[in-house]
Amino acid sequence: MLDVPARPHGDAAGEIDAEGWTPGVKEAFADRVLALAGRYAPNLPGSVLGRHIVAPDDLARVNRNCGPGDPFGGSHDLAQSYLFRPLPGQPSHRTRVPDLWMLGAATWPGHGVNGASGYIVARSLLS
User: Fold this and answer.
1) CB 20 within 8 A of CB 56
2) Are 6 and 60 within one domain?
3) For position 51, what pLDDT does the model report?
4) Which of 71, 87, 102 finishes a domain?
5) pTM across the whole model
6) Which of 31, 52, 71 is the last residue of a domain?
7) Number of domain units in the chain
8) DSSP secondary structure of 18-82
């Protein structure tokens, strides 16, 4: 789940006593997400072997560009847009590591998660 409140204050369902992303709030929220997804994939909740929950403040702590918890590739200013993603000298999703490609929200075409970078890489690999 990518879109969550940066600083939760309460719970609209009245089930989680939320005042920030405490360990208990993270666990309760993850339980709710799995239960809701389980309505459509009934065996999902019982199939989870382990989990690691990253809240917005956790994300911001490990990457300043993602504060306060932006899951879509960090800053959206001009220096982080379009031709400059991921790095100006590293176009076409290729990396300097042979056969390692980079894709996702932080790559061309940038901003958000829409699958376009995966499509571009797949076309390159299949041609």
Assistant:
1) no
2) yes
3) 93
4) 71
5) 0.59
6) 71
7) 2
8) -BS--HHHHHHHHHHHHHHHHTTSTTHHHH--------HHHHHHH-GGGTTT-TTSS--SGGGSG
Looking at the structure, do residues 6 and 56 belong to the same domain, yes or no?
yes
95 and 43 inside one domain: no
Residues 41-94: pLDDT tens digits? Answer: 999 999 999 999 988 888 888 877 676 666 666 566 666 555 665 555 556 788
Q: How far apart are CA 96 and CA 41, in angstroms?
A: 39
Q: Per the omega criterion (within 30 degrees of 0), is the bond before 68 cis?
A: yes
- Domain extent, residue 56, equals 1-71
Half-sphere exposure of 53 (CA within 13 A, CB side): 17
User: What single letter denotes the amino acid at residue 120?
Assistant: I
